[in-house]
Every structure is written in C-alpha cells, then in structure tokens.
Amino acid sequence: MPAKLPQVPYGAVYYRKSNPPREDWERDYGIASSDGLNTFRHWFMWSAIERAPGKYDWDECDRQLDLAAENGMATVIAEFTMASPDWLQRKLDFARMRKADGTPMASQLSPSVAVGGFGESLGGAGPLTLNAPEVHEAVMGFLTEMTTRYRGHPGLLGYDVNNEVNYSPEYDFSAPTAAAFRVWIREKYGSLDALAKVWHRYSYAEWDDIMPPQQIQPYAECLDWLKFREDNFYGHVQDKIDVIRAVDPEATIISHGIAGAVTALAGHGCNDWRAAEQVEIYGYTWIGARKGNQPWRNFFAGDLVRGAARGKPFWHAERQGGPLWMQPQVLGRDKEDARVATPEDIRLWSMASFAAGARGMMNLRYRPLLNGPLFGAFGAYGMDGSRTPRSEMQASVGRWVNAPEQTACMAASPVRGDIGLLMIPEAQRFDLLLSSQGDFKTYQDAMWGAYRAFFDMGVQADWVHDADIEKYDIIYAPYPIMMPAELAARLAKWVEGGGKLISEACPGYFGDDGRVGVQQPNNGLDTVFGVVEDEVEFMPDIGDRIRLSLDDAALRGGGFLQSYTPTSAKVLGYFDGGRVAVTTSPHGKGRTLLVGTHMSAGHFRDLESGDTGATAWFEACVKWAGIKPSVQTGNLAVQGRLQQGGDKQFLWLINPTAEAQQISVLIDGAPLVVREALWGDAAANQVPARDALVLAL
C-alpha cells in the first residue's frame, strides 16, 4: 500500500542525483525522521535515468523509496521530463524549441542541479517541444515506465507534475508548435473568413499560411497566441497527469507553481487557478531571498494560492531554509533581508504560511548543493548534513504542526476575507502587449498595491478569479482595463443583485479581442457606474503627476487618467483642475465606487520609494463599503487570521517585527475569548518578536 498523507506533510526536497552524497543517505533519513520531517520530494530526472534508449538506471531512485519506507516517511516523486536525455535531443533535433529568429534552445545543466538535459525553461521536455508527436510519445512512455515501477510502493505518496508549472515566453516558435497553433486557431474560428474579421488578415488562402505572431503588440492575433501558449502548456501537463493516473490511480497528484499569477500569468503561463484545478494538492515556491522579506510578501503567496486552490489543500512547496549567495535577486540588499536566513526567519515564514492556510511545507533543499551557482543555498542543515540552529527551528515547527494536539487546528482553514481583489487574466495578457514597449509594470504594481494597502490596514483581502465573483459581497478591481463582454455582463448582474464594486480607471476600456469601446465605460458598464467618459489620458510614465482630492485628502494617482460626466452618479472627488475623478452610484440592490486613475499602482510606487502612498483612498474605500475586519489586533504591526474548522475557531497572530508587539484583539467586533494557547502565551497580551501566537477560541 502507498504511504498515507501525514497530518501536515512537512519536509524538504532531498535527492537530485548529484546531491547529497550517497554515503550520507541513510544517516540523513534517520536525522530527518527524528527531527519531525515526514516527507521528502525527489527529482527523478529523465536524463539521469534513461541513459540510453530503453536502458534505465533506477538504482538510486529505488533506494530513496526504500529508505522512506524504512524510516516511516512519505515520498513525492517530482517527475522531471523537462530534463530530456541528450541522445533523444540529438535524435529529435528538429523538435527543439526555438526563438522567433529560429535560434534553437540549447541543452544545459540546471542552476539547481548538476545534471544535463535541461533547457532554458520548464515548459517542454528539456529543449524539446511536446508538440512534436515523437517527443510526446517518448515523455509519456517514460512516465509509464516510472509509474509502473513505483505503483503501490509503501514509501510513495504521489507525484509532483511539471515542476513550478511555467514556460519561457521567448520560445516556442518551432514548426511543431506552429502546427499546433494552427489547429487551435482553426478550432476557435472555424473558417478563414471568420478569422479575417478578427485578425484583419485577409489574404490567408490556407490554414498553413498562419504563423505565430512575432510582434508584441495589442492585437487580437497576439492575444490569441498568448492564450494558445497557456492552453497548449496545460494540455501537456494534463496529458502527464492522465498517464500517471491511468497506471496508478491511488497515487496523489500534486503540483506547485511560483505564485506567479500576478506577475507572470500572461508571459510565462503562471495561471495558479488553472494549475490547481488539475491536481489534488497544489503548492507554491516562495523564497524571501528572491522575492523580498517585507511582511506583506510573507503572506502574499499563501493568500494568492489559497484563492487559486479554491478549497483544495495547498502547500508552501518550497520554503527557504538557508542563505542565498551571489545571485542577482539579492545583490545590494541588506544581509538581514533574507540573504542569510536565521532560525527566526524560518519560524516566521513557516507560521505566516500556515496562517495563510498552507497545510504542507517543504524546504527547497534539505541540505545545500555542493556544486553549481546555487552552492550552499537554502538548506536548513549543514553542508555535510549536520544539524544547525536553523534545522532545529525547522524541527520544532514540524513537530508542533504534526502533534495530535494540533489535529483540529490543522484541519481548519482561513475564513473568507473582508474584500476580494479581482483577477482578470485577459487584462494581464492585454497589458503585457500594451505596456511592452515602455516596459511599464502598471498591472503588477496595481495588484500588489491594492493587496498591500488592505494588508497594512489589517483588512484581509482575498484574490478572486473573475469566475468566482459571486462568492463575495465586496470586490475591488485594481486595473480592469480589459474585460470580455461576458464578464462585464456578469459584473453588472452581480452589482444589481447587491454587490459592492470598487473600480479603478478605465473599467473594460478594451473589450473582446482588445478592441476599444466607442462608449465608455464599455459594454454597458456606463449604466453600472452611472457615468460616461469625459476625457482619458494614457501616460503611465508620468502617472505620478496625477493629482486628485477626496474629502479633505490630497491624493496622487498612477497609471492612466479617466475623468467622467455623471449621468446618475454622485461626485465625491475631483482631479486638480476640476475634472470629475471619483463617483459613486447605486445600481439595482448594489453600489459602485469609481476612481479615474490607478490608485493602487500609485500607492505601490510611492511606498516603494519611501513615501506615504494613498492610504487615505483605501481608508475611504473601507468606510464606503462598510467593511469591519473580522480580526482586529489593536496593533497594525501584527497580522491576524481567523480560521474555522467545523464548529471550532483558531486565531493566528503573526508579528514580523524585531520587537514584541502588544495586542488587543477583537473578533467580529467582540472581545477575544481564548480557550487555549496552542503556540505562545496568551496571558502576555503580546506576540514575541518575529514569532506567532496561535489560539484556540
């Protein structure tokens, strides 16, 4: 029988062929299991296993599964068909992924492992495209061999499919992918005449005349290319999953991304919602050394992936446990900014992730690599596998989350947030094309700025895919510049039914296929907001010069500017010079609040430069919507998360600061009543520095 899912899967990535040394394996497993680690993930790399056609070397992989069973641990096999054998690359050279100029993707060693066969992305089979039938057949054949071998092993928990689910936007313009694109286009449009009406290409005589667009411009053909790349990629991921499930229906199917839906959905395919939909357990890589160590960032990835998981269990699948040396993400940053992870960092990152709802955790290295550019990085244990203060802290957290006393707490999950942040994938894809020439980051900054604003105010903001708006009463749309007609209609119906919609400038300005609506707001949203457009300005490079006032607050905007002429809305604020900037309007049983600039992008810009930002705007939004946070800590330095499991409630209080913080907590406006302190001392009325307080209510 396969291994059982632990209460909280907790462990690390261990085996990567070149590391750790074989002579240490038995000792390492013994230390790990005694330290409360119950799960290892291993990289089973195709290029290191099928060393010649049909000749497999499973010896080291077998040993990992056997050691897991002997030590009472569970194994997640990370299938690494994105490291393809060099002999296959030679044989199928025509199937190499290519850049637009025809440059083929080279075979190389990964920065994360000294093993060959990798390409420059995670989206294919090494440098080979799965759109070539020969490559596809070889990949599925290897997965069949692997799954057949380990099916039912007592050390096996499941399979992690397609590590960090993403691909390179610079590739793939290969002939096999161009052929797959033509099939996709034909299925979407049906005829060349229908295609011509949208793409404005009128001289396609055959479907074979169609080639992937090589320009990056806000045209329908480029939007189709971006959508095809995502559909094509996740189709291949699903093929892998189907092969594994066909052979071993008892194995758990897992995957993890990089919590990249805000920054890399359009270009790299980091659609966390779509990835989570395919599997039983989803997760995310998030590393303070690479992403930054600010308090809001410690929660951001967990909150994003919780929204994407839509109720499924999710893990912090790769959490930092040690330093990161000499990599571009850390250069110029302070030593204390996650460059050298401390035991307190590990505790804080772990508890923040659990507070956000993660119910599994893996260090991305059990012990550091001994070679390559990431030598010495990330491991909680020493270079020789010995215990360290970091590993001791890791062990203390692991023992606690898996103790029987925490069963009910670990079965609970965060309550729904106070407000939803609207994710519109089409808006991100369009903005990638629209903003590419100026290299503007308005979409990213707007999404982060809104999340950060509510976070800093102690308001729990959930990430809400546009397909899930009906689950929330209050929605904030940070940068809704592109919106399909179908979504605009659903938003209108949602507001009419009682929803409260807060939107920034240019809602749905670009409609289906990226076409500008002649009536603005577009697609009937003028009725929802009770305004029509007065003037519009697309000058994000000088968006910091946008000034407006709301009540007694002088504010600075960002991104674009759109002023309004009210039809039924009430004016609340003006741009400098007198144009209407802020309006509110009833619509059916609901209400809307509209601001004619991208306040969240400006807020993020200002905070990053050390200014105060547009906090007054977000405070006005909270007041307008009547939001009363479910958790009020009495101290904005402390983040509180309420979790519910059946009739039991648990409160997580996280202090990311270097000093103890006093608290005075209200739950739904009522004084806190504590049944039991599970982590920390409730009687102290404070949360220790870089620590947590977990309470059963």
TrEMBL record:
Pfam families: Glyco_hydro_42 (PF02449), Glyco_hydro_42M (PF08532). This is beta-galactosidase. GO terms for cellular component: beta-galactosidase complex. Keywords: Glycosidase, Hydrolase, Metal-binding, Zinc. One of its GO terms (biological process) is carbohydrate metabolic process. Belongs to the glycosyl hydrolase 42 family. Its EC number is 3.2.1.23. Transmembrane segments: none annotated. It comes from Falsihalocynthiibacter arcticus. The keyword Metal-binding applies. The keyword Transport does not apply. The lineage of its organism: Bacteria, Pseudomonadati, Pseudomonadota, Alphaproteobacteria, Rhodobacterales. One of its GO terms (molecular function) is metal ion binding. It catalyses: Hydrolysis of terminal non-reducing beta-D-galactose residues in beta-D-galactosides. Residues 19-368 form the Glycoside hydrolase family 42 N-terminal domain. Residues 443-607 form the Beta-galactosidase trimerisation domain.
